[in-house]
Design brief:
By secondary structure, this protein is α+β, with helices and mostly antiparallel strands. The chain contains eight helices and 16 strands. The longest helix has 23 residues. The two termini are 27 Å apart.
């Protein structure tokens, strides 16, 4: 199965004092020590030789540039920090896109904040979103691994030593890119003066894997003829986009708006609809990876989900964003230059089964429980 998350920043703080090396696969998020002395880089952290950085200087921080390509498209973000602290307010991670910090009158409440498109924000804390009987409070003194997550869609979570300590579900926009200001570890991004007041042993940041859809698509077992069919079709799309770059940009924006609009409509219907969508996605992925694309079970996945969404009031033909896409001259132009992938016999059979049965299911309002 395709990896859901892509590691884009990993600091361990071992090695040469003052040198912050990114050991993630792309190694493009090296850090720069600002307001820190070599003595602030410790040889030992959670274990002898593991390395750590102490943040007690009010201006001390580690700045991470975010100009690399993996920071330009985030959508969903996940982070994990191994630390120990003294009681005080302070930033663990700060950026224009997301923050992870300590807040509250008792000075020990973990909070994550996310900036979404176009001009929204979302926040989660253990005070308002605790999953346990008592809100989690960060202990002072011992090492602990804290984490945060925004899936770019409808869920935010906080973690402590691998356990979920807070969760919030809703309708959220994608997390925006950090921008040119970069990332600040151990202090506020711009003003300083909000030092974490403790030691950090390790930092990891992941983004939602932008290749997961392609990875899942090509995980399907196919014969040579079907593989060649999709190679040709994808080549035609890329060639059409090269001929019409303005249309390529416009369609990318319109398609993103359609996906976001339909997703928000569905999520807004409540937890039952969200649960059915998740079940449908899991069953679809299983059948797809097993090569059962043209099976009655796969047709049922689509028919049952469509039937439920219609009952819940989410009808694709009534979606304004989808109507705008279909009415776009660019959509008609690009489609006119493509040969449909009807050489994929399994996919054509699935479409025939779904279209052939959709009318009866709509009339009968049949929904699988």
């Amino acid at each position: 199965m395709a990896e859901l998350w892509e590691l884009i920043c990993h600091h361990t703080y071992g090695g040469i004092p003052g040198v912050v090396v990114d050991v993630s696969p792309r190694a493009a998020s090296h850090g720069q020590a600002v307001g820190l002395d070599d003595g602030d880089f410790l040889a030992d952290g959670t274990a002898p030789g593991s390395g750590a950085v102490r943040f007690y200087n009010q201006d001390g921080r580690i700045r991470v540039p975010t100009e690399a390509i993996q920071w330009q498209s985030i959508v969903g973000i996940r982070g994990e920090v191994t630390l120990r602290r003294q009681p005080s307010l302070g930033f663990i991670i700060d950026s224009d896109a997301f923050q992870f910090h300590v807040r509250g009158n008792s000075l020990d409440i973990p909070v994550a904040w996310f900036s979404n498109h176009p001009k929204q924000y979302a926040e989660i804390s253990t005070v308002f979103d605790s999953v346990g009987p008592q809100p989690y409070r960060i202990p002072a003194g011992p090492w602990v691994t804290l984490g945060f997550m925004h899936d770019g869609f409808g869920t935010m979570e906080l973690y402590a030593d691998g356990q979920v300590i807070a969760r919030r579900d809703g309708v959220y926009g994608a997390v925006k890119a950090p921008g040119g200001a970069g990332l600040s570890i151990g202090n506020a991004l711009r003003s300083g003066g909000l030092s974490f007041n403790g030691e950090i042993d390790e930092v990891k940041v992941w983004r939602l894997n932008p290749r997961r859809i392609d990875d899942e698509f090509y995980a399907r077992p196919v014969d040579r003829e079907t593989a060649e069919c999709w190679r040709r079709f994808r080549g035609e799309i890329e060639a059409a986009f090269r001929r019409h770059p303005d249309c390529a940009k416009q369609l990318a924006s319109l398609v993103a708006q359609v996906v976001e609009s339909l997703r928000r409509q569905a999520i807004a219907q409540g937890p039952e609809t969200q649960s059915r969508m998740l079940r449908a996605a899991k069953e679809y992925n299983r059948l797809w990876r097993e090569g059962q694309v043209d099976s009655p079970e796969m047709a049922d996945v689509f028919l049952d989900l469509i039937g439920w969404l219609r009952i819940a009031g989410v009808a694709p033909e009534d979606n304004a964003a989808l109507a705008a896409l279909q009415a776009s001259p660019c959509w008609q132009l690009i489609l006119g230059e493509l040969t449909p992938p009807d050489c994929d016999r399994q996919l054509m059979t699935l479409l025939s089964m779904v279209i052939g049965n959709l009318g009866d299911r709509r009339r009968n309002q049949g929904v699988r429980v």
